Amino acid sequence: MKPKYTSLRGVRDILPEEVKSWRRIEDKARELFRRYNYKEIETPIIEPAEMFVRTVGEESDIVRKEMYVFKDRGDRLVALRPEGTAPVVRAFLENNLYVPGKVAKFYYIGDMFRYDRPQAGRQREFHQIGIEALGESSYILDVEVIILLLEFFKELGLNDTILLLNSVGCPKCRSEYSKALREFFTPYLDELCEDCKVRLENNPLRILDCKVEGCKRVVVKAPSILDYLCNDCRVHFENVRSVLDSLDVRYILDTRLVRGLDYYTKTTFEVTVSGLDLSIGGGGRYDGLIKDLGGPDLPGIGFAIGMERLVNILRDRGLLIEEEDVPDYFIIYDVILVTKAIMLSKLLRDQGFIVEISYTAKNLKSQLKEADRSKAKKSIIMREDLLANDKVILKDMTTGEQEEIGLDKLEVSIIGERV
RNA sequence: GUGAAUGUAGCUCAAUUGGUUAGAGCGCUGGACUGUGGAUCCAGAUGUUGGGGGUUCGAGUCCCCUCAUUCACCCCA
Question: Which of A133, A256, A263, A291 can bridge A286 by disulfide, Cβ–Cβ 3.0-4.6 Å?
Fold first, then answer.
């Protein structure tokens, strides 16, 4: 039979078995973030479209071709959130959570939407775990945020993570750098791909990310952003690096690591694992974003982890814990005992056991088959003659052994009990 | 948005150069087993071959369109 409806392209169901693994990962994140004193926040999935255009960048791919935008019935231009930072900052401002002199630390777990062509590690609805720390400009926070990200992966058992690090400077030094890049690339115009010729005008930093061979050859010789950082940005980045070095946190300095979201400033980073060319987490500073959203001129930093990608890696490495709950008891009974059977199921459930009960109450054979299929550890067989003495048959479904026991052994009695 | 591969039973996959009634394993249902599940054996059910159109005496197979999946580019988590 064919279903009448199927899920839309690029989205999928996360089935019970997998959800269980996801929750385990999320619980790990919650527990870790708690120790770093981050507070969980939930923001709406829909936001004003304009907010992302302003923060992520009008020229960014996310806004240009990946954002789900529609008009609601009140004629408002609405977007499904393509990322988590702007909404958190919006909520921070809207709810007056800013306390001068105090850093505000949030984390979120939720789904994001980008209208991409689906492929490995990329869906239209995907899930992120992220943190945002608002109101602190110190390099010490940068270091802590990076350590936290790495620590999360480590706690999940990933021990071959690779940290990529860069500084994209502030708007001031970046415009200097853009100018320098234009000057550098212009003589090589013929060797650049068509896209990059356009990028040369709009956003020369994007050329650094180009995967076309011809461009890559030129890019190797391109000047580094690091040589164009202003004094403030340079010192900041040196401090970040020196503390990471002394903490023995290894990283690859990737000066071509250009974040596709315009709001990034200064420190940016991505984390991947060997043999994967996708990042499983990434982030950076965004010192101008809060002001852009109409708030005070406060710095911010955060990261996001791609849940689907993380789960894929963990599964590949055999690090994904996939185990489903099975019933502790399956209750089998003659149909005349239905009330007592329901009572017993409730009493056992009250004690915290996972209990399944036959809904057919057919013959013993078919009920045992039900029990077997439910994967219950034990079956309780209720028979009228035994129940008169508050006894049942307890059958171990693994060994097949069974014995008559008093219900008191299960720490329940259904004589005189009411549901 | 660009390029490529794939789509057959609930699942994993067969089906000669286009050829009769599209098969197998797993799973499912029933029986062997008249109140004890699993193991074994036996029997049985299940498909508009993703959808639509075309070529042909004849299409799962060839052609076109469409939808979906997968992979790569692009971009990112």
Answer: A263
- Report pLDDT digits (tens) over A227-257: 889 999 999 999 999 999 999 999 999 877 7
**Tokens found for residue A337:** 């005992």
- Tokens 């791919």 identify what position? A61
Strand pairing class (A378-382; A69-71): unpaired
Q: Within 7 Å: CB of A81 and strand B?
A: no
Structural domains of chain A in order of their starting residue, each with its CATH number? 16-170+230-316 (3.30.930.10), 172-226 (no CATH), 329-409 (3.40.50.800)
At A78, is the secondary structure helix, strand, or coil?
strand
Burial class (CB in 10 A: 0-12, 13-18, 19+), A211: exposed
What's the pTM value of the predicted model, to 2 decimals?
A: 0.89
Query: How far apart (Å, rounded) are the C-alpha atoms in residues A246 and A205?
Result: 30
Ranges of H-type helices in A38-159: 49-56, 61, 85-94, 139-155
**Nearest DNA or RNA nucleotide to A304 (CA to C1'):** B77
Token pair 């708690």: residue: A34
Whether A116 sits with its Cβ under 7 A from any strand B atom: the answer reads yes
Instruction: Tell me what ipTM this predicted complex has.
Output: 0.83
